[in-house]
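User: Before I run my own analysis I want an independent prediction to cross-check against. Here's the chain; please return only the structure tokens and, at the end, one sentence I can use as a sanity check.
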Amino acid sequence: MDSIEIVNLIEQPQYINEVSEWIWKEWEENHGAKLEDSIYRTKHSMNKDDIPQMYIAKLKNEVVGVVSLWRNDLKARQDLFPWMAALFVKEKYRNMGIGKKLQQVSIEQAKNLNYEYLYLITEHNNYYEKTGWEYLETAPLDNGKYTKIYRYNLKK
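Assistant: Structure tokens:
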């Protein structure tokens, strides 16, 4: 397989609309959000030296995945930050290690910004534990459902 390149979205903004659509379809469309809102958030999530940041995975000239570093991804826990969020890999490229590479970039960037922990929320079972994340707790979402919070120790 050809090598995967991970780059900050700020360096290749031509992919803003594409990755915004992925995020919107995966997490926002069913909650009544508009695609335009997702594009707006993506445009304002591009930094190099602070959060928020977004990274894309590229294979040849095709963008195949995305991950974000956000100040918050869970309204119920405003005290926790930063968050790895919106980790998405196109379906035909899954199970190729791309998600792990995107995770690693998020972890390294959060370390570079001198945070002690990185957090995420997920409904997945036994995925993040394999890459060093520890389960923290279950927390409420705005829609009456619950999600799991995980933490990654950046100082280890």
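Sanity check: The chain has a mean pLDDT of 93.
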